[in-house]
Structure formats: C-alpha cells, structure tokens
Design goal:
703 residues; mainly alpha; two-stranded antiparallel ribbon; Acyltransferase_3; SGNH; Peptidoglycan/LPS O-acetylase OafA/YrhL; acyltransferase activity, transferring groups other than amino-acyl groups; membrane
Length: 703
Amino acid sequence: MTTAGSRSRSDLRRNRTRSPEHAAASRFIPHVQGLRAIAVLFVVLYHFWPGRLTGGYVGVDIFFVISGFLITGHLARELSSTGRVQLGQFWARRARRLLPASLLVLLFCAIVVSTPYLMPTSALPGELKEIVASTFYVENWYLAIDSADYLAHSGDPTTVQHYWSLSLEEQFYVLWPLIMLLAAWIAVKWFRGSRLRAAAIAIGVVSVASFIFCVVFTLTNPAPAYFVTFGRMWQFGVGALIALVPRLRITNALASFVLGWAGILALLYTAVTFDGQTPFPGFAAALPTLGAAAVIAASNTDRWWYPTRLLALRPMRFTGDISYSLYLWHWPLIIIAPSVPFWGLTIYHRISLLVLCFVLAWLTKRFVEDPSRHWSVLTSRPPRVTLWSSLAAMVVVAAVAGGGWLANASSYQQGVQAIQQLRADPPECFGAASVLDDACTGTENDGTILPAPGFAGVDSPEDTECFVQLNDARPVSCEFGSKTADARQVALIGDSHGFQLLTTFQAIAEREGWHLTTFFKGACPWSTTALSTGGAFGAACEQWRTAVAVELDKRDFDVVFTSALATTGYDASGFDSEHAAAVAGYQEAWGTMIDRGTPVVTVIDNPVWETDPNKCLRTRDAGTCTGARDDVLVEDDPLRDAAKMDGVTLLDFTDVYCDETTCSPVVGGANLYRDQDHLTVTFTDTLAPQYTRALKEAMGLAG
C-alpha cells in the first residue's frame, strides 16, 4: 500500500519530470490572434504579389513582437508563481508546438527538390544546404554569412529561405528564458529585489543595445543585418516589456481605441509604402514594431468597433490559428508551382495556389500541430524524451536531404560537363547566329534546348573573385589574355550584366591576342549618378566608382566595353526625370575616357523576366514560354540615349531576343537565361562575333 507521504513525494517527482502542455494558466488573447492574421497575410500577399504590397515583409516583424509578448508573459507567470522556470519543460513544449509542422514541410521540400521533374537539378546543392540549415534552425546565420539579400529579386531563392525567421525565433526561445532567469537570480541573490522587475530591466537593456546594433549594422552591412539574431532581439523585447509592465497595457476606452487604430494604421502604412529600397531593418523597423506593440497594448474591448473586437472576429481568429502552418507552406509552393506542368502565373493560378495554401495550413493545424502538442507518448514523459525525439526527427530530415544529393550527384556532374562540352563545340547556326548570320537563314532547330533548362542555372562565369558585391567598395580588377607589351588593352566594366559577359570576353581576348582588364560590382553600373538606393550600399557604390576612376586614369586602354541592368534605379534629384539622371551619369562617366581618346562600346540590355524562364521550359514547349515585349523589355533603356555622343558605339540585340510583340527565352536552340535576367555563358558566346567586330571597329582595326 502506498502511504500518503510516499504518494505525495511520487506526485512531486512526477510533476517535476513530466512536461505538461501548460505550465501556467492559459492567457489566450483573441485580438492578438487577429494580429497574427494581419502578420501572416502581409507576408503571404507580399510573396504572391510583391509589386502590390511592397512592404508586406514587415509581417515578420509583427510576429517577432507577438512572440516576445506571449512567451515572456508565459515565462513571467511561471517565474512569479514558482520562483523558477523549468527550462526542460519550456523547451519541450516549444519543440512539440513548432517542430512537427516545420519538419513536415522541410521533408516535403527535400523530396521535391530531389525530384528532377519538379525542380532543376542545378539548384540542388543550394537547396539541400539550406534545408539542412533550416532543419537545425540556423538558416538565418547561413543567409547572413552567405550575404543573401532577402528583399532583392536577383535569381530565385530556395524553397526554405523563409525559415530564416523561424530559425531566429527558435534562437529567441533558447536565449530569452536564460536572460530572464539570470536577471531574476541576480535580483534575488544580490539585491533582494523583484524577479520580474529585474527581468524587465534586463530585457530593456538588451533591447536598447539590440536596437542600436540593428541601426548601425543596417547602415554598414544591410544584407546580413536582415538576418542576424541580435539585430532583431529588440523587437521581441518590445513585446516582452508589454507583458512585464502592466501599465503598458491600456484599458482606458478612449486611449485604447486611439492606440489600437493608430497601430493598425501604422502597420498598413508600412505594408503599402515600404519596399525593397527601404533601409531595413534599421530605424525603419521601429514603425511596424511599435505599431504591433500598440495593437497588443490596446486592451479595451467594450465596443464592437474597437480594433480589439474586430481583430477577434472569427475569420481573423481562424487565420491567426493557422498562421504558423500558412507561413510554412506558402513559400515552397510559390517557388515550386511554376515548375509544375500546365501551371502558370496568371491571376487565376495565383489565387488557386493561395487557396491551396490555406487548405494545407488548416490540414496541418488540424492533423499535425494540434495532435503533436498533446501526444501522451511525449507529454507523460520527462522533457528530455521530447528533446531527444526532436533531435532524432531533425536528423532524419537531414538524412533525407543527404539522400537526395546522393541520388542526383552523378546527374549534376553530367549536366555540368555537358555545358562545358557545349561551350567548346556548339552546334551550327546556334543561338544568336540563327538570327544574325546570313548563312543560317531558313535553318530550323530540332527543338533541343541547350543548355538543358534543368542545368542552365550553373551556366555562369566562374571567376567570381572578380565580382564585388554589397558593401564591398574595393576596385577589384582581374587580368586576362595576352601579357605582351604591345597587346591591345581592353577594359570590361559594369554590374552583374557586365559580369555575365566575362567568360565570352576572356575567350575573345585569348583569340585576338588582346589584354582584358575587368571591374565589376553587383547592382552598381559604371556611372556618376547616385543610385536611388541610399545607405551603406549606395555609399559603397559611389566609393567603388571613384576608386575605379582612379584605376582607369593610371592605365591607357584602347577601348572600354560596358553594360548595365536597364531597370537600375537612380536618384533623380536635380534632373527632370530618373531617365535623364541615368543618361547624364553614363555620359559623364564615359566622357572621362572619351576625352582621353579611348572609345566606349555599350549594349542595350537584355529582357528581364518576372521569374526564371527555365521553370516554364522544363515542363512546357518553348513556344508557350514567351513573354510580352512590353512586359519584359525596357524600351527606353537609358544606355540607348546615353550612347548618342561621339566616341560611343551602341550594340542592340533586341531583334535577337524579341519580335514586334513577344520575347523568347530560347533563340536558335540556345537557352538564353540562367535566372530571370542574367544570360547564360553559352548564349553570350554566340554573340562573340558581334562583340569582336564592334571592339575592332572602335579601335580602328576592322579590315
């Protein structure tokens, strides 16, 4: 028989080791769930229609504030009632709440990207690396180190890039209770003060330091600043302080009404007016962060027209309930959908996909999220069982990703080798030659597309050390071709649309016995007009241009070739228009060389697509993958008007890419694009005769 004493000791021991779903009473707040709905809708609509809701990415910032508020409130209640936080239980609850749905989507992505029919094999290495990084919740650091620009649209991101925010949140769940416990311990041990007051002070200090770091790092290093954990901690801290300081929760009817609607208006303003050019996070992130905090703090629910009541309506609460799974599913489906046979990018396809995202999110919430939180196999056992089980599940997902690489590694290598062979020995009347070579008139391609759409993504210049990016302002130059003293000196200068010509120009220099010098900086054309992008990146571009001008002045070149992305934004201050600003900047930069007797050759930019045409080409006939000329081609490319000056030669290959109404991603059997706007080396090689002729004529060498 068990005595009362032994039973109580047994109960105590069990309560200390089991991991209940709620360590303290639930504090469900309906209007906060509605705020989740706003956050996820901002993000989803931004990803579906980035040109319509240009600042929808601030939804992630709203999530951070909500998490800070809810998690801190939970920890504070436990700390206040028990004087401690059972870390194992806390982390186990988080694992059961978040990991099942997260790992399910990651497993889905690992399988899909390993299926050549659904995703290009050329993208496999990058996809699998990020899946593994996301599985172990370090995706934000992977992207920060890789200097990815989440707000840019150069190339296609992976199916799991959105896991950066989930990774950051998981790191928050690890660090936050430790910060609160340390502060509480110091308060009791040394100052005999209130645990919660000490926690609030500690979080306030961390938040201020984090905000300062965020602002400075955004100005000096904007790309990684978007992902770095400490640069975002202040947003969690703002929500946390509302949970810890009761006076910040406004119950007065008028004040709550005004505060709540002001917060919603601030969020709508940021979602509509912010865009990829907004220096973010930095100072700009304070507006959506404080807006979300204002909505949370507005606690009065007396009238139906109060935001707290409207956000608690059933549709908003439903969307808030499925917001986690909706966030998980929407992005992979957006990336994968264009590669699915018979799928397109029309408004009807997008709406259908959006509906599918909601259905999958509800199913995941109903059959994965909710059951896993209450699975007795885990909840009735010590927290370590949940944590070890979670680790095992993560290892399984990583193993599936590794298996995907093993299954496709040989195909990947064969595809790379096929591209190398194609460059060395292209077919007759291939690519631009099918249009520009009179001997190819009337010839027809057999329908083969080279390089294959599944591998075009790797058909790029290999000398990436010659290409500086982001805030790097060094005037890095690379030297190729002849080293003889009497060799003709050719300079190739530009942004990524200049860099895409590097391999072709290397071959030209070798063939003609010329010496080639290059200067490239991503998103920074050779001009003197400031970019519309300010901050550290704009400053780095200015510094790079100045440094390149100094380097050019030290050398005597026989000709300079330059190209630039036609959609680059310029600061129109002091000019009649942005176009006029761009033209003036090009002409001033080129004039420094022309005044020294060095001719300049430039080229009209190639069409720019909304998404990588290879997604369409992998599953459809090339004739169905064309784009309307008005949609993909910039007719008023500023390079065209800038070239109307003595000493400049303009090349225009628009008739190669397009007819009067449409542009094609395939010309003469050649696959033009490796992503949505950069040409394959294979195709630029087919333009080599035209580039060579123009350079020779500019140097007076044409026979």
